[in-house]
Specification:
295 residues, alpha/beta, Purple Acid Phosphatase, chain A, domain 2, 7-stranded mixed sheet, 6-stranded mixed sheet, 5 helices, globular, disordered N terminus
């Protein structure tokens, strides 16, 4: 069965707005929620303090930025450098907002759980959104992996969300969506859980809003070709590269902003808005989505 919505695009200077066809009328829209997404701080990269200095500047902005909490999409430190976790944490604690990290392929699970005092797989609820945080990265691979045990847990989270009239945003470091040249080619392969993950998303397509990812250092990159599911890669707070994906007609979208930064996210009613905020500069790119909100 084809769940692809009809689409039209509106392009303006510095922004791309995406309007899929309305999927479902609602009597109970999502209350306004604002939060911040960061990724790939990589403290200790190249054994110097550049990443630490960048993280300090970013954290100072996050303290004043509009948003009640922060999601960090992995690669907190670089290469599992143990001494960098306390540095990251001291800076993070000065922000004064809850920060919900996930592991990246540079964050060995044992070190992550020890130094950040959090299980790698967990969830939290804000308003009507259940954020499901999943460790799908291995330190010896750029690809992603979702185990059978994790898939069962994911399905249980979806079932609970459905029973409690909640919606789900999945947070995984490595994207699930297939991507090949000119893209990175790093994703959850079919034999490593991709097929089963999409089956769960299809089963709960009226509840699953989006998947959030880091890993690519490509600015805001994403796809909207799995029904109503929005699959979004967020910019690195340390560095991003312009791989000229749109010029090469790569599937999906890649906003034209590649400075290090973070993303301001707003959910309200049936809309999700992303505003790309380069550190120490004005927001320059924006993307909006209509959500599959159902009563």
């Amino acid at each position: 069965m084809n769940f692809l919505p009809r689409r039209k695009f509106l392009t303006t200077l510095g922004s791309v707005t995406f309007w899929p066809k309305a999927l479902q009328a609602t009597q109970n829209p999502i209350d306004r929620m604002r939060f911040i997404v960061i990724a790939d701080t990589h403290l200790g990269r190249r054994d110097n303090d550049q990443a630490e200095r960048q993280w300090r500047k970013t954290a100072a902005e996050l303290k004043a930025a509009p948003g009640d909490f922060i999601i960090h999409l992995g690669d907190v430190v670089d290469g599992g450098r143990v001494a960098q976790y306390p540095i990251y944490r001291r800076i993070r604690d000065g922000i004064g907002k809850p920060v919900h990290e996930i592991t990246g392929n540079h964050d060995p699970r044992a070190l992550f759980e020890k130094h950040l005092d959090k299980p790698a797989d967990r969830f939290f609820v804000r308003g009507r959104i259940r954020f499901v945080l999943l460790n799908n990265a291995h330190s010896d691979s750029h690809d992603g992996f979702i185990t059978e045990k994790q898939l069962a847990w994911i399905e249980a989270q979806c079932s609970k969300a459905q029973a409690q009239s909640q919606f789900i945003i999945f947070c995984l470091h490595v994207p699930v969506h297939a991507n090949k040249h000119p893209d990175r080619g790093w994703y959850v392969k079919p034999q490593n859980g991709q097929k089963s993950f999409y089956e769960i998303c299809r089963q709960y397509r009226d509840r699953v809003v989006a998947t959030f990812h880091g890993h690519f250092h490509n600015g805001i990159r994403g796809w909207d070709d799995h029904g109503s599911l929005h699959e979004i890669i967020f910019p690195s707070a340390l560095y991003n590269l312009n791989r000229r994906l749109e010029e090469q007609k790569a599937p999906g979208y890649n906003l034209n902003e590649f400075r290090p930064g973070y993303t301001l996210v707003e959910l309200e009613g049936r809309k999700m808005t992303l505003k790309y905020k380069p550190t120490e500069a004005k927001a320059t790119a924006e993307k909006q989505f209509e959500l599959p909100v159902k009563t």
